[in-house]
Amino acid sequence: MKYLKEIQSSKNALIKETKKLQQKKYRQQTKSYLLEGFHLVQEAVAANVSLKEIFINQRGLTEWSEWIEKNLTDYYLVSDEVLKTLASQPTPQGIVAIAEIIEPENEIELSGAWLLLDNVQDPGNVGTMIRTADAAGFTGVVLGQGSADLYNPKTLRSTQGSLFHLKVISEELNQFIPRLKQSGSPVFGTALDVKAKDYANIDRLENFALVMGNEGQGMTAEILAMTDQNLYIPIKGKAESLNVAIAAGIVMFQLIK
Amino acid sequence: MKYLKEIQSSKNALIKETKKLQQKKYRQQTKSYLLEGFHLVQEAVAANVSLKEIFINQRGLTEWSEWIEKNLTDYYLVSDEVLKTLASQPTPQGIVAIAEIIEPENEIELSGAWLLLDNVQDPGNVGTMIRTADAAGFTGVVLGQGSADLYNPKTLRSTQGSLFHLKVISEELNQFIPRLKQSGSPVFGTALDVKAKDYANIDRLENFALVMGNEGQGMTAEILAMTDQNLYIPIKGKAESLNVAIAAGIVMFQLIK
């Protein structure tokens, strides 16, 4: 039998405290963030991510009773109003949980394929790129300075849970790239310069890094100067460019062995 | 010298009438739609799309004076409040125009590469796929039943103007596919069935069609039954699937000759 408490009002102290996690600074202070919807919560549970508090409404409880029975030991039954207060979407999907931010290990294994994001600002793009990197078999994604917050609800939703499947690290790329290069992995940038190569002419690799830049401006000059080789995707039609997440998907699936 | 009228109030009759174009049924009734921002309007002008009315605020007028002088002959100077009323985004980008919906020609040339959308519901996905099809050198995109409206502001924004670069047609796929097949183009579906082939093992083609399905459910059974060959993208990590626009990008760039 579960221990079950009820919260009807969004003025409840715990709910008010939890709602603060919609702001980045509170997420950083408390090293925790909000997960919305059963899909993300299930992925977190499957990945042994520690959930501090769990809030479920009656509909969620009914729809997911079997999974809840099997996987959760302690949660709050909350009103639809409370769930709406905690969720970023107008129709919350039955559950919101407080998850613990996992600090990356000190010694990260640098082998494998890495996706590095240089100022990718749109949460949807960042989340989708993490999902795609997972699907392509990448080892990890590094969110460089200026990139969207991993724990933004829109980023989380776009990952579809892939943040629990591979390493996702927030670190300045000018620190990470030298370590990658020292480990022997070539670092590919994406830019149109005279020495850039058609991405389709690069042999497939096991160990490498691919850097994607900002939606409008592309990669910063500082990071461009650190790459071993820049790549471009030939545009055949009249489009000026590709969406950054689409470009990342095309190159990731082409490069990885 | 330009003819220039001013509209200060969003209660102005023309503004109230124009605002109705935010709804699909009015777009269909009047065969017109709203374009937001100078990038989309410039692409429309470059493609000789007829603009019925143009609304610009003071900031837009100042920032784009040279282009306006050269390209526009008749427009309204409107208050920020008026522009906000017409735009879908909280910070409208200086201009909103009423554009005419162009009916497709009766006899469509079916050669080349075609992207067919079977119930792709998200406007951002549909717009991004049109942009990617343009960049990959596709001839056209067919929005099948259940797919997001091309003239939804979010679809338009995601196309980045590519809707003016290639053919975009709304037509039922069960009508369009037989004509494509009759013209000799193979039609590839995307699905995981026992006979599906790895997309990377298909020889590049000039004339073909690729069908992408709904974000959650994939292609409908009816359309699946009409394809010549189904393709899949091998997933190497633990992601369950790829975003549909990412999958489309990967396969389009791989298949087209």
UniProtKB/TrEMBL annotation, chains A, B:
Keyword Hydrolase recorded? no
Query: What keywords sit in the KW lines?
Result: Methyltransferase, Transferase
SMART domains associated with the record:
SpoU_sub_bind
Pfam families given in the database record: MRM3-like_sub_bind, SpoU_methylase
**Residues passing through the membrane, by range:** none
Concerning Gene3D superfamilies, the annotation shows: 3.30.1330.30, 3.40.1280.10
Domain RNA 2-O ribose methyltransferase substrate binding intervals = 34-105
GO annotation, biological process: methylation; RNA processing
Q: Name one GO cellular component term.
A: cytoplasm
Q: Which GO terms describe its molecular function?
A: RNA binding; RNA methyltransferase activity
- Enumerate the InterPro entries for this protein: Alpha/beta_knot_MTases, MRM3-like_sub_bind, Ribosomal_eL30-like_sf, rRNA_Methyltransferase, SpoU_MeTrfase, SpoU_subst-bd, tRNA_m1G_MTases_N
Decide whether keyword Methyltransferase is in the record: yes
**Family of this protein:** Belongs to the class IV-like SAM-binding methyltransferase superfamily. RNA methyltransferase TrmH family.
**What is the name of this protein?**
RNA 2-O ribose methyltransferase substrate binding domain-containing protein
